[in-house]
Amino acid sequence: MDFTQAIEIAKDIYWVGMYLKNDPFQCHPYFIKNGNESVLVDPGSMLEFDAVVKKINSISSMRNVKYIILHHQDPDLAASVPEMEKLINRDDLRIITHSRMVPLVKHYLIKSNYYEIDKHQHQLQCGNLSLTFLTTPYCHSPGAFVTYEQRTKTLFSGDIFGGLEESWDFFAGDDYFEKAKQFHAEYMPSRDIFNYALSKIETLDMDLIAPQHGSIIQKERIAPLITQMKALECGLYIEESYKDELIYTIEALKQKDLALVASLKQLKEKEEFLFQKAKMADMGEMIENIAHQWRQPLAINNTIISILKEKSQREILEDSELMSKLKEMENNIQYMSKTIDDFMRFYHPEKTKTNFSVSDVVEHALTIMRPMLNKAGIEILFQNHSSSCVSGYMNEYTQVVVSILTNAKDVLMHRRIKDAYIHMVLSKNDDSVILTISDNAGGIKKENIHRVFDPYFTTKHKSMGTGLGLYISKMIIEKNMGGTLSVENIKEGAAFSIKMEISNG
Fold first, then answer.
1. pLDDT at residue 465, as a whole number
2. Does position 266 have pLDDT exceeding 80, yes or no?
3. Using one digit for the tens of pLDDT, what is the confidence trace for 16-51?
4. Residue 429 carries which DSSP code?
5. Domain boundary residue among 203, 237, 271?
6. Rounded to an integer, what distance in angstroms lies between the CA atom of residue 257 and that of residue 252?
7. How many structural domains is the chain composed of?
8. What confidence tens digit (pLDDT) does each residue in 147-185 have?
9. Cα–Cα distances in Å, from 1 out to 19, 53, 162, 209, 416?
10. Is residue 84 part of a domain?
11. Is 377 left (phi over 0), alpha (psi -120 to 50) or beta?
């Protein structure tokens, strides 16, 4: 190629730079021929000034330049602009750049007005010429950007895709990444920042990339080069001692991250184990409830069978009486079946959140607990002042209510409270549903109240509890469902409050 002449790299787009022999830092201005609204891209320093002017005048005229694009503020790109202004000599000449660049490039004594891309929707339309500007912050300056010419699918990439080449090639070859990686490793601040810019660029349909340094990249090499660039470590031009310290710190943080991940995994496994252990502890009480609820219908059915058997043997059993007694037995069996369904529902795990009525859950929990409370001589009172629904796991909410009721029952029985009762109030407060469960067992000791939700903390005899029920309950309400579970001492005992946000679904 004759580098003393302008070289057309795409239709009406020309390389107008200067070949500097044995200089690895080649700088490349480009000229977009567009009548009297032509565009000069990254005009360069005074080193290339004469060559750039000569080449533009050979294909058009400096007077036809209406726009000068400055992709960043460095002197190798922008220093020649004041001299270019004198030759162009147009009042409507505009310097296209980012608003963050203006306070810097003005120090070159530029006199023309600015076309700030971030104040013009990152677009420029000049007749048939359409330019799109993509910001690439900190690659390598805060206001850096690239320019995409839609008609020829050419990207003017500024410093991105630039290279340092001792044996310079006009068009990039298969080994271009090796020539480009040192430049990017030293001039791009970090891999994450560089990849952010690349992620925006790779969405474009490109046939050609024209960087300010290095070689022009043709279509078949663009995608493979971007892939290689994404894996490049950047920001390496720092003091050796600091670099070693930084690498050591990064490795230490990685090891801490691995340890943290392992700890979190162990914690999750521990929580799941505690949750299941609490379920098993509750199951013992539930089985006792089932036995209590089954005992009466089983006894009745056994009596009926004995009567029917005796009357049948004495041949005094009438058909009407047989049908009546069979119906009674059937009703008892259905009651027993319903009891099993209630407990199966309680232990059935839920995987997705649903909207449910707190009132319905309380009624279900009382169905499970009422026989045991009645047996213990504990009066249960439920005041329902809200029909609102919440979003969460209904069975887990039921477990929490059952756990609190069981805890209250045990304390009332242990302290042998006369006229023992449990008072439940469901109310609405602003956008929340609050269920309060209180008793008259005398409350929780002041030194223990802040510990009642700790795992394995219990004031009961070891034969009566594991100390997991309230811990699991708090975890269910606050971690799994985003609510709050709290406790306070009131006049006659302790009051637990479950607060959940009302669901609008």
1. 45
2. no
3. 998 877 776 778 999 999 999 999 999 999 988 999
4. E
5. 237
6. 9
7. 2
8. 999 999 999 999 999 887 666 789 999 889 988 888 888
9. 11, 19, 20, 19, 104
10. yes
11. left
Q: Which two tokens stand for residue 247?
A: 């690498």
Domain with residue 161: its CATH number is 3.60.15.10
Tell me the pLDDT band of 474, cut-offs 50, 70 and 90.
confident
Confidence of residue 412 (pLDDT cuts 50, 70, 90): very high
376 and 230 within one domain: no
pTM to 2 decimal places: 0.51
Contact of 319 with 366, CB cutoff 8 Å: no
Rg of the Cα trace of the chain?
Answer: 41
pLDDT surpassing 80 at residue 236: no
Label residue 229 by pLDDT band (50, 70, 90).
very high
Cβ 477 vs Cβ 470: under 8 Å: no
Domain of residue 456, CATH code: 3.30.565.10
Question: What is the domain range of residue 493?
Answer: 350-505
End-of-domain residue from the set 208, 237, 266: 237
Residue 327 lies in a domain: no
Buried b (16+ CB within 10 A) or exposed e, 124-143: bebeebebbbbbbbebbbeb
Distance separating alpha carbons of residues 79 and 75, to the nearest angstrom: 5
φ/ψ bin of 35: left (φ > 0), alpha (ψ from -120 to 50), beta (otherwise): left
CA dihedral sign of residues 427, 430, 431, 437: negative
Instruction: Give the angle 478-483-485 at the CA atoms, nearest 5°.
Output: 70
Higher pLDDT among residues 88 and 301, named by residue: 88
